[in-house]
Automatic annotation (TrEMBL):
Protein name (record): FAD dependent oxidoreductase
Signal peptide interval: 1-16
Record organism: Rotaria sordida
GO BP annotation list: NAD+ biosynthetic process
One Pfam match: FAD_oxidored
Gene Ontology MF annotations: L-aspartate oxidase activity
Keyword annotations: Signal
Length: 558
């Protein structure tokens, strides 16, 4: 039984009620795929009161709210030029004993209902949320529709002791007007009730450890922790915390389309054309091939056949990938938003709006440019029951990167630890490794950005390991950073950003967090001490592999 102490106070707004919550010792901020992983391992370990704050009403990040229930895995093969020794990283990664068992189980529940070709398992996002994730999180504490607004630290300035958040509830008499994220976001972060929502202020206190699992690295900013965003001009990592604030990877608003039996009319595009026009293209593929790329439901037997009533996710580079503006505000504008108590995520609302327009524009272009037999037969599904929004675009954009922590002793996981000769078989074996992952360096560039020459080199990415130090921040002792906010370079992020890797990182972090709470640790770096590290690693192994199995041999075999 949980008892909430409720205070009613009147400051500026008579609606404002602040609810103090002091029984969430392990507090997970954000509902990314990584955060979900953390919640699910933490909740299996008894006696650690754990809560999670999710900005939308669907937990799961890229798996659900970002509308990508079509997870990629590594696919690449690397080869040494001198000897021709070849390592099929994709096939090693897909071996069952190298995968996170819960992730595999989750994907098997619905299976490959789309017969897509980008992923082994593509299924309908809404079903992935309601039938796969909801039963798993049934007995956990999630605060949905909740964003964070303010963080308080103790006098050492190194511990987070309080996180204030805003939770919104939809009004029953919701207005007809359908709002896009770019219009709605300021409302999420406002304490005031609006035409659409009533608000509750939540104040989380008595926190022992915080897991930064947000999509946008909001804990890093609000706790004034060192972070870096965007491109890094230098190969070996820039720990100045500056980076390039306006250039990084592009981002995408995904949506669902359905193929109808006969041509149907659709309302004309209600949004203005994307600024400057857009160059949509099929690239080297055909219309049909893009259709089956991330198809999530079909009656067709394989990915070569397009069938009536198919449902597909559109997530296409030369389509809805928005490449013109950077998602995050500059560090100084971000700090200004925080320091003037106007926090709204520190994101570029113009970029979000233009990305929405680009996505709609792509739908209309794709529909119009279909081969004759399919012309006017694709529709954007705008019902709440599909993407979970009135407009049909994903609740949240798919981001390839976030603000990234600068770790303990300036640690950044760097490219040399994940790349090398094929004959090395695997990346650098960190003593403090907590999980494994594999994917290629995959950068979707932005227009008007020049990328340092080292980024154009081809890196041979090995099956790699992720260390505890990548989950730390040099300024905050009770913070565990996971997923895209980890302490890693720009290049490494481009190879760790995949669903299965993020989920495994989260599962490991859930163990780290509960261990730290149960053992009354004050500082996450205490776990680097051998007596703790060995115990944590052995608990993590119950959730996710910490060694690679290659040709029947485990690396390392412990
Ligand atoms: C803090 O949380 C712990 C664990 O839930 C609980 O035992 C303790 O009473 C809480 N302290 C306060 C002041 O609420
Ligand atoms: C590597 O393969 C290429 C192409 O098959 C071949 O020409 C070359 O001799 C091979 N090199 C070695 C060292 O075996
Ligand atoms: C959640 O758990 C409750 C009881 O703990 C059960 O009645 C309910 O059916 C469960 N819901 C799902 C979706 O599993
Ligand atoms: C944030 O940290 C920097 C040092 O890293 C410090 O100079 C600055 O005053 C801090 N800002 C706030 C608002 O605490
Ligand atoms: C990369 O990381 C490894 C392991 O942390 C470290 O030993 C090495 O110095 C780093 N290399 C560069 C170029 O920063
Ligand atoms: C579209 O492509 C044309 C020709 O390659 C180019 O001139 C134009 O700048 C592009 N427009 C945008 C918005 O990228
Ligand atoms: C998914 O496809 C199956 C097989 O064609 C069909 O029975 C089912 O109704 C479809 N589901 C949706 C939500 O379209
Ligand atoms: C689509 O989504 C995946 C996430 O599964 C992402 O990694 C990828 O970069 C996106 N692809 C395109 C072509 O936009
Ligand atoms: C598709 O719809 C547009 C707009 O209604 C119409 O102009 C066009 O003739 C239609 N094309 C076909 C092949 O039905
Ligand atoms: C980021 O890179 C762009 C070019 O790609 C450059 O114009 C800009 O000045 C850089 N910004 C910073 C802060 O280095
Ligand atoms: C926590 O540990 C780090 C690394 O050992 C250290 O720099 C920091 O000062 C510690 N925090 C406190 C409050 O002692
Ligand atoms: C794995 O074993 C096969 C068959 O013995 C061999 O051809 C291949 O080179 C081995 N691969 C690696 C990565 O050791």
């Amino acid at each position: 039984m949980f008892v909430f102490i409720i205070f009613f106070i009147t400051i500026n707004s008579i609606h404002s009620s602040i609810r103090t919550i002091d029984d969430c010792q392990l507090l997970i901020i954000g509902g990314t795929t990584s955060a979900l992983g953390a919640l699910l391992s933490a909740s299996k370990i008894l006696n650690t009161p754990t809560c999670l704050l999710e900005p939308t009403d669907w937990i799961g990040g890229q798996l659900t709210a970002e509308l990508l229930s079509a997870p990629d895995f590594a696919y690449h093969i690397i080869k040494d030029k001198d000897t021709n020794f070849t390592l099929n990283v994709g096939s090693i990664d897909r071996q069952l004993n190298n995968q996170n068992p819960l992730f595999v189980k989750m994907l098997n529940i619905l299976g490959n209902t789309g017969h897509c070709w980008v992923s082994p398992k593509c299924s309908i996002p809404e079903l992935f949320h309601s039938q796969v994730i909801l039963p798993l999180v049934n007995n956990t504490r999630i605060f949905y529709n909740t964003v964070i607004k303010h963080i308080t630290k103790d006098s050492s300035n190194r511990r987070i002791i309080q996180i204030d958040a805003i939770q919104r509830s939809k009004r029953q008499t919701s207005s007809e007007h359908c709002r896009f994220l770019s219009e709605e976001l300021p409302d999420w972060y406002s304490k005031e009730d609006s035409l659409w929502f009533t608000k509750n202020e939540l104040s989380f206190r008595n926190i022992s450890f915080v897991i930064e699992g947000s999509s946008w690295g909001e804990v890093l900013v609000l706790s004034n922790a060192s972070y870096i965003q965007g491109l890094m001009e230098e190969f070996d990592g820039d720990t100045s915390g500056i980076g390039n604030s306006t250039c990084g990877q592009s981002f995408t608003f995904d949506f669902l389309e359905q193929l109808r039996e006969t041509p149907v009319d659709e309302l004309p595009n209600p949004l203005p054309e994307p600024t400057g026009g857009a160059n949509y293209s099929f690239e080297h593929l055909t219309w049909e091939r893009i259709w089956t790329y991330r198809r999530v439901n079909t009656s067709a037997p394989n990915s070569d056949i397009v069938a009536v009533n198919d449902l597909t996710i559109q997530n296409w580079s030369e389509g809805n990938d928005y490449r013109k503006e950077y998602f995050f505000l500059s560090p100084s504008d971000t700090q200004h938003q925080r320091d003037t108590n106007q926090w709204q995520g520190g994101v570029n609302l113009d970029a979000i709006e233009n990305a929405e327009r680009l996505a709609y524009g792509y739908h209309y272009w794709y529909r119009k440019n279909a081969p004759t037999q399919w012309t006017n037969r694709t529709v954007l599904i705008r019902s709440i029951s599909a993407a979970g929004t009135c407009h049909g675009l994903a609740k949240m954009p798919y981001l390839r990167e976030s603000r990234r922590s600068i770790g303990f002793e300036n640690f950044l996981m760097n490219i040399t630890t994940i790349s090398g000769y094929a004959r090395n078989l695997h990346g650098y074996i960190f003593d403090d490794r907590l999980c494994i992952g594999a994917y290629n360096v995959d950068i979707h560039s932005m227009v008007q950005c020049t990328y340092p020459s080292y980024m154009h080199e081809s890196y041979s990415i090995l099956p790699y390991y992720i260390p505890l130090r990548a989950m730390t921040n040099r300024d905050i002792d009770n913070l565990i950073v996971i997923g895209k906010t980890m302490a890693q370079t720009f290049l490494v992020n481009s190879a760790t950003r995949l669903h299965p890797v993020e989920f495994s990182i989260g599962q490991a972090a859930g163990v780290v967090g509960t261990y730290a709470v149960q053992n009354n640790l004050q500082n996450i770096t205490e776990i680097l001490r051998e007596e703790h590290l060995k115990r944590v690693q052995s608990i993590v192994k119950e959730f996710t592999p910490t060694s690679w199995t290659i040709n029947g041999t485990r690396y390392p075999d412990d």
